[in-house]
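Practice set, problem 2.
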Amino acid sequence: MEPIRHALIAVSLLLVVIVIGSVGFWYLEEGITSYLDALYLTICTITTVGYGDITPHTSHGKIFATVLIILGVGITLYVLIEIMESVLEGRLSKAFGIAKERRSVAKMKNHKIICGGGRTGSVTAEEFRKEGLDFVIIEHDSAIAIELRKKNLPVVEGDATMDETLIEAGVERASGLVSTLPSDSDNLFLCIAAKELNKNLEIVTRASSEEAAKRLYSVGVKKVVLMEKIGGRRLARSLTKPAIVDFLEFATKTGETSLESLTVEHGSKIANKRVRDACSILGIKEKVGTTIVAIIRGEEVINIGPDDEIREGDTVVVIGKRESLDKLGELELF
């Protein structure tokens, strides 16, 4: 909004000079018989086009005209330079684009907020975009914000640890928040502030140590990701079990084959069914073409067998083609 502010200041100054000039000539010059003549004389003065039939005759009028010429010409040039600069550099279009972006964010509900638009935040944003989710990125660095906007990603510029920035990003209406700030203390402060504004907000954040993770969990964070530990495991498995790593990379990146997690709601068709029954009777495998690969119950991941029971509240992990997973959602089994 800075370019618009500059342009408005410049235009306001010009209008003030015109008003002062018109009133001044009206009171100082005896030959001025109407306010229109005073306005005309003022415009002639500040644009330096010269005087015609109406000219200042009194000494006071001439002194006033001299001062007005100096001020008026300077401010007029300032206005013209500001407007030309705004148009040539696209500053006004950028400012109006940001205003439109803010209106769009203000309409979002149940969206996700990504705090930090660096490398991790950008990858998170691309994943959300692939999933068709509404989201907004909070980024403090204006240079990074410009690059994100070039990718058509919605951005709120500001400090993510400040309440006003979180509110501008719609934290009170959001369903989830991802914090990718590099500092554990910043992530902790951000999570506390976000939870105070929205107690139902699900937060996922990064941490650099187990101690930091414990503190983050204590303030209500849903999941803390230890980036270095995950990276180390991934490196090790890339060497010891490369086929599995390649498969997971393929499943999560290409979208042709994908993993999906679905929560078993109360009264759903799949609740209290054995895995073999869910696959055969309900047709998860034969009719839809997806396969149940795991059940998450609380903090425990169950290595399933055909006789394991699927209970209400469980999270069922299934694998299949993207279109098959979409079809699974249409069957309303969960």
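Problem 2, part (b): a different protein.
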Amino acid sequence: MMRIKNYLLGGFFFCASVVATAEVIPVYQIDQPAGTYLQTTLTHDIYRYAADSKLNDLVVTDQQGNKLPYRIGSAHPVKEQVQHSPLHFFPVAVGAPPETLLALSSASIKLDANEISVSVEKTVNEQLLDKSAPIDFFVVDLSDTRARADKLIVDWQVNETNQYLEVQVSGTNDLTNWSNITQATLAQLQKDGQKLVRNKINLNLTEMQYAYVRLKFLRGGEKLQLTGITLENTEKVAATPVVDSWKVTGELADEQESVLLTGDRAPGVSVAAWEFTRDDIAPVSRLGIELGSIMYGDVVRIFSRSSDKQPWQLVHQGIWFNAQVGNEWQQSDAITVNNNSDTQWRVELNEFIRTKAAPVIVFHHQPETLQFIANNSAPFNIAIETDPAQYKQNTSAQVFSQLISGKKIQWVQANFTELKPAMSSFARHGLQVSWKTILFWAILMLAVGVLVLVALRLVKQMSVEKTL
């Protein structure tokens, strides 16, 4: 009997050890590189296999399966320079709903016949501004700014009531949910020809962290007239890869009424709607729409979500143009979408093109540079680790930084070979419950059942012995 229990316990611990072991699935392979400090370019293709949009599940291994230290980022900067970019901004009256903010930030078309191009020029829709209502806050549009946002320079007409300004700064991507960023005090003082100007707000926002910034003046905001808002960045100039772009085709949606939700669900508005599914979770920085040879100059609404169980979230609403200029078809500039990793997308256009168009979404992603420290055990694999408990504790970047600290390193560009593993091997595409987990629980249940039977037999045997 003891032998049976030992076998069961041994099988239990063996199964537990199998399940606890993370599976590492190679995606790319680098053969015999010429150097120790290697780098390669990762495009959106790696996100077809990854389950984490920040690539925390990526590992680099040698021939024996040992994990090598690495980091993912952009190329090393060679110099710095300060850049100033004027920003579009508009006042918002007290009580203005989110849909009014979207309308105020819409785009209008500008045709330049000399350059034979179509560009989008953002303007404030004066008809939607309630000039009689007091101003609640100002919205600054960062959606066309691809770089990070270091500082805002705020200029205003100075009078006695607003020499000092106290401003609360918040950020959002949907003009509905705002997150606090910072609070600052600005000042413009003048006396005897001398000026003291403190008009910069430190934002320290990462690249495309927020599409809009709200400036709510807690002091000095009465009758405040802003004359300009400028983005100031200390840019790191580097040799970065060309932007990665790819196209996804869609299908005419079953629901041909707009899914846009307002304060009260509007009555069914007929649209021409298409839905798209991409097989990657690459953080998308911008997207465009191709309509082929169809004249269009009307509203477009773009929605996204990460699964069927979630409601559609509005990503963009504005005017989209597709026009023939000269011998070429030109369309509106790509839309900034702030590192969106959603896999499901929906495009709504005017219903009159429902039977004429077959829209294509063009996604844009800034490739990353993978740098790692090689050993003498080539080939090396760029792989995906399937156990979330392992990659959440990934400290490779910290180890990498310590190993290269203080060293002047010449990085060697390495090319990889695609191994094309089966998509079903990865958790995001395959079954959420692996065969190892099923085997583990089957053995566990069997072991528990046998132990219960053994216990019952022992109890029965002890009862018989007592009666004797």
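Answer key, part (b): The first strand starts at residue 24 and ends at 30. The chain has five helices and 30 strands.
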